[in-house]
UniProtKB/TrEMBL annotation:
Signal peptide: none annotated. One of its GO terms (biological process) is carbohydrate catabolic process. The keyword Transcription does not apply. One of its GO terms (molecular function) is beta-glucosidase activity. Keywords: Glycosidase, Hydrolase. The lineage of its organism: Bacteria, Bacillati, Actinomycetota, Actinomycetes, Micrococcales. This is 6-phospho-beta-glucosidase. The active site is at 364 (nucleophile). GO terms for cellular component: cytosol. It comes from the Bacteria.
Length: 474
């Protein structure tokens, strides 16, 4: 049985991040970012300097091979490609008075290539790529000065690319700050100083910066749409017991507050109560309140998994996309422990649409798996039927949400070309339609090979989703 149809203007494509694909960590005048001292992602400690075992230093060498990769995206029929701009390519230290022209010119060339193939760019301004100097010298987003530095950076991007980019995202997974303070917020603080008060203040600074960028975009790129980006993880009560339902609601609120502020322009009552009960008093200026009133045009999000919550203190969280959560006993999980819940994507789309009434964009969704490169009829490929099943079932639920009346702008599958995992810094955790010959030990040729899912996704795009089938993984 076929899935519901997708609208004719639906933006099909794929998503990446500069720190996970580009490499060239010291090329073209680029400065260091927080990612350059995270050789093991969130799985290990940061280092004082870049180390040879950090795969992100070379990543998949998109910096030199972008034309080849974009040609492959065009072959699949991409209508949109989500990429991020590395802040430290534009401002190597983050606080210079003038931008780095070599960095700007690189992204000019990338945009030229996308335009040549008729692919719409979707640009993330800050995707876990805070310049390392801003973390070490300023304390990251805990410091109010980063608002002005980010605004300067955003101004340069809008002035340079505003006529070429129609869709912008201010921060990637902005609601991950409490769960990954260094990667998400560039925050370096000893345990005794890494308090909830400090993190809430850093959260406020990022939200103000996002709103300032939204205001700037309206001024400098009036034809563009600017959106926020949150990590979506629907949370179910572990049992129907009312305390578990309340615990699930509290977990949802902790995630939703970021979207509430960026869509509604002010902090909601439930969040203000949380601050009161924790004894936290935010430093909020009149200028901050004025800035927050500049709300986004659309809401984008990542979706990989759902989780459960319980009021019971002995329920331990499991693995997951940064936030984790209590495992759902009714769901299967990936090799990395991320629970697979396609219906959760439909639930999120409906929840966000009903809550915020803004167009939605699924900008990350995919399956990380260990792929085996094999030879079939003289051609090297990967038989990744497991990825096809995962993506099919999630896209069916996107179609169901559209049939429910939700306005969905598009879908960009995460890691459309194999990249270095943010959470584990591995290449063996592969997401792409394109296999990249590089391994966790740094070996490999960087050659690209089309997986079985490459042709499948091309057919999804060509048919507007008509080839999707309900429940092929069941």
């Amino acid at each position: 049985m076929s899935a519901p149809p997708f609208p004719p203007g639906f933006l099909w494509g794929g998503a990446t991040a500069a720190n996970q694909i580009e490499g060239g960590y010291a090329a073209g005048g680029k400065g260091l970012s927080v990612q350059d001292v995270l050789p093991h992602g969130l799985a290990g400690p940061r280092t004082a300097a870049p180390t040879p075992d950090n795969l992100k230093l070379e990543a998949i060498d998109f910096y030199h091979r972008y034309a080849q990769d974009i040609a492959l995206f065009a072959e699949m029929g991409f209508r949109v490609f989500r990429l991020s701009i590395a802040w430290s390519r534009i401002f190597p230290q983050g606080d210079e008075a003038e931008p780095n022209e070599e960095g700007l010119a690189f992204y000019d060339r990338v945009l030229d290539e996308l335009e040549r193939h008729g692919i719409e760019p979707l640009v993330t301004i800050s995707h876990y790529e805070t310049p390392l100097h801003l973390a070490e010298a300023y304390g990251g987003w805990a410091n109010r000065e980063l608002i002005g530095l980010y605004e300067r950076y955003a101004r340069v991007l809008f002035e340079r690319y505003g006529s070429r980019v129609r869709y912008w995202l201010t921060f990637n997974e902005i609601n991950s700050l409490f769960h990954a303070p260094f990667m998400s917020g560039g925050i370096i603080a000893p345990p005794e100083r890494l308090t909830e008060g400090l993190l809430y203040q850093a959260m406020h600074h990022e939200l103000v910066a996002s709103a300032c960028a939204t205001r700037l975009a309206r001024e400098l790129a009036p034809g563009a749409q600017i959106g926020c980006m949150v990590l979506a993880m629907p949370t179910y009560p572990l049992t129907p017991a009312p305390p578990d339902v309340l615990a699930a609601s509290a977990a949802e609120h902790a995630n939703l507050v970021y979207g509430d502020v960026q869509v509604r322009g002010a902090y909601p009552g439930y969040f203000l109560r949380t601050l009161r009960e924790k004894g936290v008093e935010l430093e909020i200026t009149d200028e901050d309140r004025e800035a927050l009133a500049h709300t986004v045009d659309f809401v984008s999000f990542s979706y990989y998994m759902s989780a459960c919550e319980s009021a019971s203190p002995d329920r331990a969280p499991g693995a997951g996309n940064i936030m984790g959560g209590i495992p759902n006993p009714t769901l299967p999980a990936s090799e990395w422990g991320w629970q697979i819940d396609p219906v959760g994507l439909r639930l999120v789309l409906n929840q966000f649409w009903e809550r915020w009434g803004k167009p939605l964009f699924v900008v990350e969704n995919g399956l990380g798996a260990r792929d085996e490169l094999v030879e079939v009829d003289g051609v090297r490929t990967v038989r990744d039927d497991y990825r096809i099943a995962y993506l099919n079932d999630h896209l069916v639920q996107v179609g169901e949400a559209i049939a429910d009346g939700v306005e969905v702008l598009g879908y960009t599958s995460w890691g459309c070309v194999d990249l270095v995992s943010a959470s584990t810094a591995q290449l063996s955790k592969r997401y792409g339609f394109v296999y990249v010959d590089r391994n966790d030990d740094g070996s490999g040729t960087f050659e690209r090979y089309r997986k079985k899912s490459f042709d499948w996704y091309a057919e999804v795009i060509r048919t507007g989703g008509a080839n999707l089938r309900r429940g092929i993984s069941s």
